[in-house]
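During the reporting period the student researcher (J.K.) took over the structure-prediction task from the postdoctoral fellow and processed the backlog of single-chain submissions. One of the processed entries is reproduced below for the supervisory committee.
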Amino acid sequence: MSTVIRALRLVSSQGREYWWTAIIAFGLSLPLYLTTLPASYVGGTISLKALAFLDVKLTAFAVLLSALVAALAPLMVYLLREGRKSAKASATGGVLIGVFAPMLCCSPLLPLTTGAVATVLPALGGTVGIQVQYFIATYQTELLLLAAGLLALALYQNARRVLQGAHCRV
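J.K. obtained the following structure tokens:
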């Protein structure tokens, strides 16, 4: 935790644009998560109607995931400006799981995709899509915890890279 705090302090001392990056990332990701996390209650639809189905757990996950994205964004921008690689894979995985898990639960997207694949490979048809939807619906909380864990891992990896020192400036 101290690694992340030191890296955020270092990056924020470099200029206001990093603060603005965090604020904008939070401002964009919070409405995204607030409308996508309850998607399993509204048939996989992303809309403002989903806000009516928010509960304390989903709101807490939306704020947590948005805060992690907001803390991660300035570190990644800083690393890119310094000409260093950032840890994008775990961050991408966290964002994708957080956004797509609720949508795949009860939307027709997964059965349509499975049906399309089954036209080419008939052995994959049947109830595969339903089983995946059941898994996502049953373990949605665990999948959201996994998404938060991946974002936290990406935050730590990028913070460690920020503290390793400067290379070439881009």
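The committee noted the following: The two ends are 28 Å apart (CA to CA).
J.K. will present the remaining backlog at the next meeting.
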